Amino acid sequence: MKSDIYGLGIETSCDETSMALVKNGCQIISMNIYSQIKEHSPFRGVVPEIASRSHLLKIQSVFNKVIADSGMNPGRISYAAVTNRPGLVGSLMIGGQFAKLFSLVYNIPLVCVDHVKAHLFAPVLEGYRPEYPFLGLMLSGGNSSIYKLDSFHEMEKISDTSDDALGEAFDKAASILSLSYPGGPSIEKKAQECNDSGESIFTPLLRDRPRDDMTFSFSGIKTAVLRAHQKKNHPAVICRDFQNTVFELVERNLKKAAALTGIRRIVASGGVLANQTLRQRLDLLARTESLELIYPEKTILCTDNGGMVAALGYEQFIRNEICLNDFSVSSRR
Ligand code: KG4
Q1: Which of 105, 152, 201, 211 has its CA 20 to 30 A from that of 249?
Q2: Would you say the CB of residue 11 lies under 6 angstroms from ligand 1?
Q3: Where in the chain is the domain with CATH 3.30.420.40?
Q4: Which CATH number fits domain 6-124+302-326: 3.40.50.300, 3.30.420.40, 1.10.260.40, 3.10.310.10?
Q5: Confidence class of residue 272 from pLDDT cuts 50, 70 and 90?
Q6: What is the rounded distance in angstroms from the CA atom of residue 328 to the CA atom of residue 112?
Q7: CB atoms within 10 A of CB 151
């Protein structure tokens, strides 16, 4: 009988210190996420230096809790998986050093994981394992991109942002409107106050885009939000129209990517996928365009978490793709 494999996933790439104990790469035994939102809130964005210091202060207690909650002896863990790219270098190093130490103490392999790819593996934790090929839509505070995944090792970026990431645009638009940080949830909430359904005041921004252009760009709409605010448009209308316009761009790019590649299966993840309006719109798009769409049902699995790191780490561990003495971190993929 095959014995179960337990892995520890460690995530510190940005402003969450998170760890999870995962069984066979697909079942969360325990997970702990410490969010630094309160620490970055006065600055309305993530301050790298504050992030690293906070990871350093919290990492031990996050580990203690995840082990205590699992009720397991850490000696039963078979691998330690850690995000080593892309992310804030100082923050990645804290998680990386912790993972390295843990693997040395327990004499188990260290597995280095790509953060973006890990997000696309989050649905595995809810029982869905996407078949290849599939398209990966990644919308977070640091990424707005579409990937084409032909196999476990073949992952090609086919669309990216030319300026801000979508989560970042939410955060900046919220800041212009003096809404609380992070901007995503506060813009979503404000937009719900608006119950009329007029045409978006930002629609002209999407006109005249070349038919085959799949690039994301959010700097124009950010300026338009500022202008609309200066003209004293109602904040709820601005938020509703901001969402409608940026989500329309997401839909258009996704449709183009599906047409270009002929791939109808899509896995979507990243913090912005916590947005209920986006989820509803993507569900509708999937129905009308006959796409197979998967995103983590639990919003906690869309944002940064140790579970997804352990899930992808498991796939690498069983393929014997482990870090030996070449452990390093990188801000890029
Ligand atoms: O993936 P994530 O947790 O981590 C980083 O990329 O750091 O994404 C965080 C981003 C933030 O920019 C936040 O404003 C955005 O996800 N976000 C949302 C929502 N919840 C979080 N954006 C839109 N709607 C939401 N409900």
Answers
A1: 152
A2: no
A3: 6-124+302-326, 132-297
A4: 3.30.420.40
A5: very high
A6: 9
A7: 8
Ligand 1 atom with the smallest distance to the CA of 167 is 12
Task: Report which protein residue has its CA nearest ligand 1's atom 23.
Answer: 184
CB of 86 sitting under 6 A from ligand 1: no
Q: What does each C-alpha distance from 317 to 76, 82, 327 come to in angstroms? A: 15, 12, 15
Nearest alpha carbon to residue 145 among 302, 268, 245, 293: 268
Query: 197-209: per-residue pLDDT in tens?
Result: 778 889 888 887 7
Residue 188 beta carbon below 6 angstroms from any ligand 1 atom: yes
Nearest alpha carbon, ligand 1 atom 8: 271
179 lines ligand 1 (CB under 6 A): no
**Right CATH for 132-297 from 3.30.420.10, 3.30.420.40, 2.60.40.420, 3.55.40.20:** 3.30.420.40
Q: What mean pLDDT is predicted for residues 95-102?
A: 97
User: Is it the case that residue 246 has pLDDT exceeding 80?
Assistant: yes
Q: Is 184 in the pocket of ligand 1 (CB under 6 A)?
A: yes
pLDDT for res 2:
78
Tokens of 142: 């640091």
Question: Is the C-beta atom of 167 inside 6 A of ligand 1?
Answer: yes
**Ligand 1 centre distance from Cα of residue 33 (Å):** 15
- Quickly count: other Cβ atoms within 10 Å of residue 135's Cβ: 25
Provide the b/e sequence for 41-67 (b: ≥16 CB within 10 Å): eeebebbeebbbbbbbebbeebbeebb
